[in-house]
What does this fold into?
Amino acid sequence: MLSNNGTSRDGFSSKFGVIAAIAGSAVGLGNIWRFPYVAGENGGGAFLLLYFACVIGIGIPVMMSELIIGRRAQSNAYGSFRKLAPRSGWPVIGILGILSAFVILAFYSTVAGWTLEYIVQSVSGNLQGKSNDELKGVFEGFISHPWRPLLWQGVFMFLTAFIVFFGVQKGIEKASKIMMPLLLLLVVALCVRSLTLPGGAEGIKFYLNPDFSKITWDVVLKAMGQAAFSLSIGMGALITYGSYIQKNNRLTNTAFQITIADTSIAFLSGLIVFPAIFAYGISPTEGPGLAFIVFPAIFAQMPAGTFFAIAFFILLAIASLTSTISVLEVFVAFLAEETKLSRKKATAVGAISIAVVGVFCTLSFGVMGDVKIFGKTVFDLFDYSSANILLPLGALLIVLFTGWFLGRKNVKDEITNGGVLKGRLFLLFLFIIRFIAPVVIIIVFLKSLGLINF
Ligand code: PHE
It folds into this structure.
């Protein structure tokens, strides 16, 4: 269990455990639910290119920065800055991260709850043989139901809290180790299926043939937000997990491996969704419901569809769970290390308070559908602002901190494991986190807000 005295801190026990846990955090609804719907709304192929660019130019450097900060400080997302930069303003990054965790988990648990409903729907054979319109009806009927989505959201928050409750090694690492390899297998199987659908070629074109006229600064911002969201960066989840990584782990390799795993799964998810959309005549701009209409449509018309549907929604629920535990862990590690609460009490406080806010997100598809803030429902506002504002802002501050404040020696020490490794990419990394990443994030922010013109 986690202890506050710094001597027997809990942590990940093996290299594979580290990869599984961090990849577990990264791979989730962001890849399979959010990526296709945002890519579909923002031009397909052009979005994909921008997304890749953000993953490489911003994603990897920020991920490394977070792991460096966490492992250096051996503390939570707030405590790490307090330790490394005492009596300064930097710990505000931790506060921002905790706010992001709150906002993300509140709406993420809504969608994670949907996956549970769809497991039940699949098991009961309810989705089989239905037309697209009927499937859309099932989805809309469910999300606007007065209590069913709330029930599932509650169940999901409970499952998340249950795993976090048992601590890092016993809970998070063990869960991820079993779940991750299974997930990849199923995604690949579905990919094969979708790519062989008659009429899917149009979708492959939409997805892989960039139409550059679709690129606007708003699309760039959304690609950046999606990259940050999908890689779990910008809020301290990877600072927290970084603090559980052993000193001999090669952080650069870890960051690359996780980024490749996460980006591949998002890419494959697009390869499943877009051919199917075009084969079945569904609109790519369907919005947050996209995955919950397209995937059932694939299963409804495929042999052994019920079996694949059950496997898929279980997979999606598990992938979501390995992500939600990392989000809740940010808040719990903070409470357990910075306040007098025990880890168990911290878990309860965190999960319950987030669940309460989450209710409003879930109800925005039903009774609270007319409640709009800045022209968006609560769900849309949380989804939009976390990915496109909070995470990029957090990412910006994190690279600035690592590049300009943490000190060359500290950074090099973490990258080379105290001089054991060569750290060939060190100077490139330093250049990117000092100049490229911050400048790009700032320009994209200002441009998409219309604050600068050139
Ligand atoms: N990366 C997760 C996903 O793709 C979501 C997440 C965001 C998790 C931020 C932690 C921090 O589903």
User: Anything to note?
Assistant: DSSP finds 18 helices and no strands in the chain.
